[in-house]
Structure formats: structure tokens, C-alpha cells
Specification:
alpha+beta, 6 helices, PPM-type-like_dom_sf, Serine/threonine protein phosphatase PrpC
Length: 221
């Protein structure tokens, strides 16, 4: 995740495919490349510009990761603008209003729901959901899906499939409230980036102590 003195922020979650070697490192390399670019850019973020940057990053990583594959969610928000969301694979973007339930705003790109929409609780049980039809992969660039979501005083989430598919809705909310779930042990990567949007006269970006320890964070130079 990246914080900057400019209005707005950019966050990214990437999850390496479990079917290949070094995909965990591949996901980390994608995150660092995206964050480093955003921390140093002086150009405004647009959907086309961000997709082109992802294409360049993909080309730059082929040499080190010739068989890399990862799912990802990128979100960019600025004051008085909608949230720009780019995602590919089975990582999802969602919102939590009034701490009641998660409202997922995107759909995973899997073989199980390629031809028709499948409710997430049902999709989570289908073996074919592990077959991705879109991802950040070395063997040919595939453009992400682009979504714009109204920015309101909610909690924004970017989560891997281990979070939305492996945990019950009750455990998801419990985890967001700061409780560790016993059901998480032995599951797929359950990473979730949680961003609280508040209405304030003087916007600022802060991070929890736990987040500072496990996320890759940079401020604009």
C-alpha cells in the first residue's frame, strides 16, 4: 500500500497462484513495482494509464518470473472522485457499510462463473473456481477489469480468495473487527486490506501498527 502527500491513495493486494513455483515472490514483485511507480509519479492516475503501467511491469518481470501468475486488486481514490478499482483473478474489492456485512463490488474471474453469475457462497464450493480465466501472468498480458465505485464514508476492502471463499461471513466480520479466527489455520492466504474512509475537514492517512509491519508502504517523495 502507498500513502502520499498528494490528495488520494493507492492500495494493492496480490495473491500468487498456488499452481506454480515462486508465485508468492511474483506477487510481491508486482506489489513493489506498482507502489514504487505510484510513489514517484507526478502524472495523474487514469484507468488507461494504470493499465499501461501494469503492461510495462508485466514485461519487466518476465525475465525473473517466466511462468508467473497472480491475482490482484488495485484501488485508487482521491478527494471528490470515485474509487478506481482494477482487478484480475480471484481477489475481490468490497465495501462494509455500518459494520453490518460485506458488499462485494467485483466478481472473480474463474472458470466456474465464466458463463453465468454465481453467488459467492456457492462459487466458493466449486472446484472450478480455482481455474482463473484472467490474471497477471507472464505468458501474455491480460488487461484487468476496471470498475468505478462511489467514495463514501465506508470501509473499503481488497481481499484474496482465502478470505472471501474460505471464511464464513461471520468469521470475515469477526476478523475485520480485530479477532483472529481459528478457522483460518491451514487455509489459503487470507489476506485482506482494510481501509476506513471517514468524513473529516483535514484528510490524512494513518496506518495501524500491525499494518505498518506487514505491508509494503511508501510515501511520495
Amino acid at each position: 500500500m502507498q500513502a502520499s502527500t498528494r490528495p488520494g491513495f493507492l492500495g494493492i493486494v496480490a495473491d500468487g497462484s498456488t499452481t506454480g513455483q515462486s508465485n508468492g515472490e511474483y506477487a510481491c514483485a508486482i506489489i513493489r513495482a506498482v507502489v514504487d511507480w505510484f510513489a514517484g509519479t507526478t502524472v495523474g492516475v487514469t484507468p488507461d494509464g494504470l493499465v499501461e503501467r501494469l503492461r510495462m511491469i508485466q514485461q519487466g518481470l518476465i525475465g525473473d518470473f517466466p511462468r508467473g501468475s497472480a491475482s490482484y486488486v488495485i484501488l485508487h481514490a482521491a478527494e471528490s472522485q470515485s474509487v478506481l478499482v482494477l482487478h484480475a483473478g480471484d481477489s475481490l474489492f468490497g465495501k462494509v457499510a455500518d459494520r453490518s456485512e460485506i458488499q462485494w463490488q467485483t466478481e472473480p474471474h474463474t472458470l466456474a462463473n465464466a458463463l453465468a453469475k454465481v453467488p459467492l457462497p456457492e462459487l466458493a464450493k466449486l472446484p472450478a473456481r480455482h481455474r482463473l480465466i484472467r490474471s497477471f501472468r507472464s505468458r501474455g498480458f491480460i488487461a484487468p477489469e476496471v470498475t468505478n465505485v462511489d467514495l463514501t464514508a465506508d470501509t473499503l476492502l481488497a481481499a484474496t480468495d482465502g478470505f472471501w471463499a474460505e471464511l464464513s461471513q461471520a468469521d470475515q466480520m469477526s476478523y475485520l473487527d480485530g479477532h483472529r479466527c481459528e478457522s483460518m489455520h491451514g487455509y489459503d492466504d487470507c489476506s485482506v486490506l482494510c481501509i476506513n474512509i471517514t468524513e473529516t475537514t483535514y484528510p490524512e492517512t494513518t496506518f495501524s501498527a500491525e499494518a505498518a509491519a506487514i505491508f509494503y508502504i511508501r510515501s511520495a517523495s
